[in-house]
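Quick question, first post here. What does this chain look like in 3D?
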Amino acid sequence: MPKKETLIAKAKLSVAPMMDWTDRNCRAFHRVISRNALLYTEMVTAQAVVHGDRERLIGFAPAEHPVALQLGGSEPAVLAEATRIAAGFGYVEINLNCGCPSDRVQSGCFGAVLMESPGLVADCVAAMIGACDLPVTVKCRIGVDDQVPGEVLPRFLETVNAAGVSRFTIHARKAWLQGLSPKENREVPPLDYGLVLEMKRAFPHLHLSINGGVTTLDQALDLLGQGLDGVMVGRAAYHAPMDVLGAADRRVWGEGEDKTAVAVAEEMLPYIEAHLSAGGRLHQVTRHMLGLFTGRPGARMWRRILSEEAGRPGAGCEVVLRALAAVSDAAEAA
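> Answer (accepted):
Ran it through. Tokens below.
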């Protein structure tokens, strides 16, 4: 498990927790592309961790490290118990979700709605910190609904920091809890990078990462160069993973050589074989790999073959190899 100093270095670039996307198969894929990027689980509710199938919900392979768990909840005692349980699984960090705007999250009184209750968030993180030796972090918005971000965000950071949290990831958009869908909340409210940069100047002792609207590694490096401690990339890391992660180890951490998309696909084959041997289905892995060749010759054939064939009963690595052959043919013809 990375030491604290190493973990902070890894947090320079991270892949956001994304529901239905960043499961263990997705993380295994991203880890093949980048050895260093900090990866997050999908959000898991604290109640589910305490009462549900823990191995299915929060189990992961050591090869995924560094990997952090994001919890959803607003009951300090339940969050503390979930944190204690999760710490035993070997995560490097526990993150509290204060940014998700979905109806399901609101009805459970957690996610972005917690921006309205910084005192409750402080109670939650204090309980979580008391339950483990891991870093406890928070992912939040700049505000919700009619809140004034320039007033709300510094008060939120100050209150939660006083409870013991020193690392925050800030999605640089408001969340509108009424009137916008979760998808619209990722795109419609305007980005305010300036406010997040202002927070870094106002709270230099805090480790602040920015999230929202980052689509390229160049953009991430530019934001790091402006003084932010980290950049969290979401959908772009999923839909065009090579564009975001392919050169990250070299350009962010000064390590290793850039991989090709073909090499990444080939490195995934032993993982896929093991997944299939354990009773898994091919599409459970390859659905996360559809964007591997985005912007490259053969991308359309790659997606089509995997989309059409990976879900068929008995589908195996031969489907991936056939898709790779199609990519090779397209590259030669280009």
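The chain has a mean pLDDT of 93.
Residues 304 and 323 are 8 Å apart (CA to CA).
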